[in-house]
Structure formats: structure tokens, C-alpha cells
Amino acid sequence: MSDSTDFDRPVLVAGGGGFIGGHLVANLLDQGYRRVRAVDLKPLDQWHQLHDAAENLQADLSLLENCKGACEDAGSVYNLACDMGGMGFIENNKALCMLSVLINTHLLMSARDAGTKTFFYASSACVYNAEKQKTPDVIPLQESDAYPAMPEDGYGWEKLFSERMCRHFQEDFGIETRIARFHNVYGPEGTWDGGREKAPAAICRKVLEAVASGKHEIEIWGDGQQTRSFMYIDDCLQGIRLIMQSDLSAPINLGSSELITINGLVDIVESIAGIRLKRTYKLDAPKGVNGRNSDNTLIQQKLGWQPGVRLSDGMRKTYRWIEREFQKRQTEHGRAPSPSVRHIPQ
Ligand code: NAD
Ligand code: GDD
Fold first, then answer.
1. Do residues 155 and 84 make contact, with C-beta atoms less than 8 angstroms apart?
2. Is 266 near ligand 2, meaning CB less than 6 Å away?
3. What is the ipTM metric for this complex?
4. pTM, two decimal places
């Protein structure tokens, strides 16, 4: 468990203006950390969440000097900063994804020099060997399935390399590193349009657009048969906390094991919205692997816990948040929110 010294030393959340980083800052403040330092590349007015009780700074953490400043006195560092997004972004921006290696490398060097005790790295299920994800009825991925290495091109290679960098910084320099392999995380206060959104938010937005336009159609990337598991943000935060408090330095899955097809995800969103849409399938859209699920044997064994929020419950909260954001934007653009959005009593 964290000791009182940790509560007094600054905690750095790199990528604090992002989706998970923004939630993590709130969570750390709730845990009692008095000095939470959130740093992000984006100007503060573009952060998903801005917490007044934290120190909020804009800086490019791909630069060593900025990492040194961000890590000053930090007792722990959480690296959630990365140039990434859903399949639409990572398939088309492989070099940008790989450049995130600079962020983790410079943060590790700076944390080591600042005497930081524990360093958290947000890795991804995209590190897993593509051969193990060829069919929708995929066998859940165990931690050992990352090797032999054949990860997602670009983004996955960067994550795998950075995992190893963490491992060797622990072995050679003594900084305690913790690595979670997140499986697709969703929830309120995340990206829901613009090209970086992932399937859960994208499907919510597309359903809202279909309702607002009166054209009751939805375009789905791929054939809709591909499978994923999606983890609600509250589970992600609980997992980060437990992993940071543990002595687990090897990478560990942090994901839901509730497997669903993308068609099944659309079913859930349609039922929340109270609508049925005509589906079209864009087969040449970015699709990624055919199937992916998280094997949670290790996390259950080591931490006595695994993500448990049901997809239908998490999606209801996510849809309602995106619906409010969507309506705000409609109003800002001089259009009244669509009267046809029907609320079903939950
Ligand atoms: P996000 O895009 O919302 O947040 C990442 C933040 O990093 C952004 O706010 C971005 O501005 C910031 N950033 C990018 N480059 C930077 C730089 N040079 N300096 C400082 N800040 C920079 O993404 P997220 O969903 O919150 O993901 C957080 C972490 O978790 C990332 O490392 C991501 O790869 C990992 N991850 C997320 C998911 C998911 O489904 N959300 C899945 C697997 C792994
Ligand atoms: N983004 C998106 N938008 N995906 C869609 C859409 C849509 O409108 N319609 C269908 N999909 C399909 C994609 O084609 C893909 O097959 C599946 O939904 C999931 O897409 P994403 O949510 O974008 O990404 P992912 O699950 O393949 O990968 C994500 O999770 C990884 C961790 O598990 C990405 O966010 C990675 O960056 C992340 O590491």
C-alpha cells in the first residue's frame, strides 16, 4: 500500500488532459494524494477534464527537458501520454504512434534521475501476436501470447518496446515499474468524434447522428462479426490502483473478458437509444484484428479481482454522456436538439 510519503510527494499524470488521464487525476485526488501534477501536450481548454485541485501544465513530453521538469520530486509517475486513437487513427498514423516512444523513454530517464519510486506504463492489448487474433472466436489472450512478437504494426511495436524499456529500467536502475495491457477502454469524458474515437464511442455517435438526421441508417466498419472486449473506465481505474499497489513488475492484462461482436455492440446501443437502424458494412475500413479478448487468470490470481462492469451498464452511462455532448454541439451550431431522441426509462 502507498505510504504517507507518497501522499506528500507530487504524483505525475502524463497525458492528464486525455480520457484515462483525466479520470486518473480525479481518482488520485480522491485517494488522498495532495499534489497531483497533470501534464499534457494540448492547451488546457482542450483537456477532457480539468481538476482545479491538481497542478495542470501544458508541455510536450516527447522532449527530455520537459520530462525532467514534469518529474521533479515526483514519488510516482503514471505515463498515459501517447499519440493514439482507435483503429481509424492507428492504422493510418503508424509513424506518429511510434514516436510516442520518445515520451516513455524520456519520462523513464527523468523519473530515474528524480528518484521516483514507482512508474506506471499504460500498454495495450495491441502488443499481442496477430496470429492469435485471426478469428472472431478468439481464445482469450494470456500475457505470454505477446511473444514471439508480431504485434499491431506501428502502435503495437512501440508499446512492446516501451514495455521492455520499463523492464530494463527496473533491472538496471532499480525504479519499480508497473505495466498494464489495457484492452479497449470506454466511458464518459473521452473522444467521441474527430477520427481518434474507438468503436464504443463511435457507435454511440453514429446512432445519435442517425436519429438526428432522420436517416435511420448506420455504417459499421468491417463485417460486424469481429469481436472485442470493452472495459469501463471505473474498472480501468480500480485496476491501475491495484497494480500500482502490488509488486507485479511484469506486464499484466487489464481488460474485460466479456466478449462481444461489433454487431452485438450496435445492438446494445440501439436498445439504449430505443431505435433500430438499417446497417451497412464498410469492408475496406480500418478493422484491426478479427478477434480479441482478455484472459484474466493472472490478474484474478495475483490481485483477487478482475474488471466486472457489464458492457450494457457501462454503455448506458457512456451513451448518455455522449448524447449530452452531441446535443450541446447541436445547440451551439444553432440547431435545436433532435426531438426524436427518445429516452427509455432505465
Ligand atoms: P487519450 O488520447 O485520450 O490520452 C492521451 C493523451 O496524451 C492526450 O491527451 C494527448 O494530448 C497526450 N499526449 C500525446 N502526445 C503527448 C506529448 N508529446 N506530450 C504530452 N502529452 C501528450 O488516450 P487514452 O484513451 O486516455 O489512453 C491513455 C493511455 O492508455 C495511452 O498510452 C494509450 O495508448 C493507452 N491505451 C488506451 C486504450 C483505450 O482503449 N483507451 C487501450 C489501450 C491502451
Ligand atoms: N473506431 C471505430 N469506429 N471502429 C469501428 C467502427 C467505427 O465507426 N465501426 C466498426 N468498428 C470496428 C473496427 O473496425 C474494429 O474492428 C473494432 O470496431 C474495434 O475498433 P476500435 O475500437 O477502433 O479499436 P480496437 O479494439 O481494434 O483497438 C483499440 O483497442 C486497443 C486495446 O485493446 C485501439 O484503441 C487501440 O489503440 C488499443 O490499444
1. yes
2. no
3. 0.99
4. 0.96
